[in-house]
Amino acid sequence: MISIKKIGVVGAGSMGQGIAQVCASAGYTISFYDVNAEIVEKGIQNIARNLDQAIAKGKATEELKNSTLRNIKVASFEDLKVDLVIEAVVEKLEIKKKIFAELERINSDKTVFASNTSSLPISKIAETLKIPGRFLGLHFFNPAHLMKLVEVIAGDNTDQNLVQPMVEFVLSLKKNPVFVKDSPGFIVNRVARLYYLESLKLLEEGAADIVAVDKLMRSAGFKLGPFELMDLIGNDVNLEVSKQMYEAFDRTPRFKPSPIQEEKVGKGELGKKTGKGYYNYEKK
Ligand SMILES: NC(=O)c1ccc[n+]([C@@H]2O[C@H](COP(=O)([O-])OP(=O)(O)OC[C@H]3O[C@@H](n4cnc5c(N)ncnc54)[C@H](O)[C@@H]3O)[C@@H](O)[C@H]2O)c1
Q: Are residues 32 and 71 in the same domain?
């Protein structure tokens, strides 16, 4: 029997913030941790701001805001003794593996571990765990407090009895779970990779500028153009995912990262989170 009441969220960047918010709003108690304590404080402020915006639109109440914020506790790593840990740290295999090894040291055998990875194989992250059966992928989308889809990913060694309870857990967050097998980029990132990379090729070839591409794709029915979306995701995260998928598909040219992505990351133009990416977001 899996009983989830306390959740640890590790990583308080773009994704960790949204994940902490939806879990806390659904009534779970959150231990919120990041190596950088300032990011946790900033994350909680952003959650309060998201809820204020929802209240202004009539989509949330003051009570929900208060209970959500009450449910989120700033945590030290040693506080992450919980029923479920959702990890949302940088997209680096060795960092994720190290975190889960440490989490295994402080948690009971019953604690479930999930990664929000976009592109790393679930089976690989779990390979050094003592209990790999407790591990799976829960892939939320950006912004996690608004996007409904969550990919639920079982690795080679994930206990099959874990899948249904975790699907139900996702439903308890009022999200739409979709079960996916462990394959590079899962479903959405594999399909969407070409949205980004082909648009970057148009830019490399000088065929169109970013404003034109974004405007056209929005008029074709996409909610955000590719460059707006890359700025929302974070150009560092997007480049890392492109690299992982390129390697995972034996360097097939269709998934080759663009030099423009490298250039953006090199300049620190990571998108909305740094105030500049393909567009400028700095407050004047
Ligand atoms: N950005 C997206 O659109 C998106 C969407 C879905 C999934 N993801 C995935 O979610 C994960 C996080 O992405 P993000 O966009 O939130 O990144 P981010 O760069 O906004 O945040 C990452 C956070 O991890 C923290 N961190 C780094 N090392 C750590 C450690 N050892 N212990 C604790 N915290 C640590 C950093 O301080 C930072 O706050 C990645 O695996 C990414 O692939 C991202």
A: yes
Q: Does the annotation mark 108 as catalytic?
A: no
Question: Could you read off the pLDDT of 177-235 as tens digits, one per residue?
Answer: 999 999 999 999 999 999 999 999 999 999 999 999 999 999 999 999 999 999 999 99
Ligand 1, CB cutoff 6 Å, lining residues = 10-16, 34-36, 39, 88-91, 95, 99, 116-118, 141-142, 233-234, 237, 241, 273
Q: pTM score, two decimals? A: 0.95
60-94 pLDDT, tens per residue? 999 999 999 999 999 999 999 999 999 999 999 99
Q: Is residue 67 part of a domain?
A: yes
Tally the domains of the chain.
Answer: 2
Q: Is-contact 74 9, C-beta < 8 A?
A: no
Q: What angle separates helix 259-266 from helix 188-204, to the nearest 10 degrees?
A: 90
Domain hosting 105: range is 6-181
Q: Which residue among 90, 91, 125 has the greatest number of ligand 1 atoms within 8 angstroms of its CB, and so is best to mutate? A: 90
* 3-class DSSP assignment, residue 181: strand
